[in-house]
């Protein structure tokens, strides 16, 4: 089933590169993937459902690579966004912006909490983890959204360096020892 979902995701990426911001429908995606709308709706309830699946799939991939290395996870996310610039900017400026921002905020808080709990030798008391996770999530996403608003003119590496500096290199403190 994931193979079919990946075909739909790749069709959306391809259409986004070709159309650069033009409206893309479920029918467009289904046809580009070599399926009909019914097959799309068998796998996804909506275009937004496909987007969430794509983000989750990428987050899972990055999590496997980064392990409990928060900095590597953020850097990988920025690099992915840079590689998929047309898609990311189109989605950020679409009717789905609010939903995507909410989804990313919730997912980022969850990931930050996981990383803080997994950090060996952490001196952060359990009762402060939700607050610290929220701080890390919103601070990181604030810089990320600002980067998107500016059209991603800086490189992902530059944004990551700024983030490390702003947080006083604390991202490295959340890497395994």
TrEMBL record:
Record-linked Pfam families: TetR_C_8 (PF14278), TetR_N (PF00440)
Residue span(s) of domain HTH tetR-type: 2-62
GO molecular function, one term: DNA binding
DNA-binding region: 25-44
Keyword DNA-binding: yes
Domain of life of the native organism: Bacteria
This protein's record includes keyword DNA-binding: yes
Keyword list, A-Z: DNA-binding
Entries under Gene3D superfamilies matching the protein: Tetracycline Repressor, domain 2 (1.10.357.10)
Protein name, entry field: TetR/AcrR family transcriptional regulator C-terminal domain-containing protein
């Amino acid at each position: 089933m994931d193979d079919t979902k990946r075909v739909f995701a790749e069709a959306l990426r391809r259409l986004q590169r070709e159309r650069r911001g033009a409206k893309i429908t479920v029918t467009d995606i289904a046809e580009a993937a070599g399926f009909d709308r019914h097959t799309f709706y068998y796998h996804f309830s909506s275009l937004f459902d496909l987007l969430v699946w794509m983000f989750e799939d990428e987050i899972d991939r990055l999590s496997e690579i980064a392990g409990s290395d928060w900095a590597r996870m953020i850097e990988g996310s920025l690099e992915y966004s840079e590689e998929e610039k047309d898609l990311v900017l189109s989605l950020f400026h679409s009717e789905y912006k609010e939903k995507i921002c909410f989804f990313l905020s919730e997912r980022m808080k969850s990931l930050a909490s996981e990383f803080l709990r997994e950090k060996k030798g952490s001196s952060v008391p359990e009762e402060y983890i939700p607050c610290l996770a929220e701080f890390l999530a919103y601070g990181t996403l604030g810089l990320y959204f600002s980067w998107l608003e500016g059209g991603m003119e800086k490189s992902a590496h530059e944004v990551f360096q700024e983030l490390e500096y702003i947080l006083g290199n604390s991202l490295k403190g959340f890497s395994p020892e």
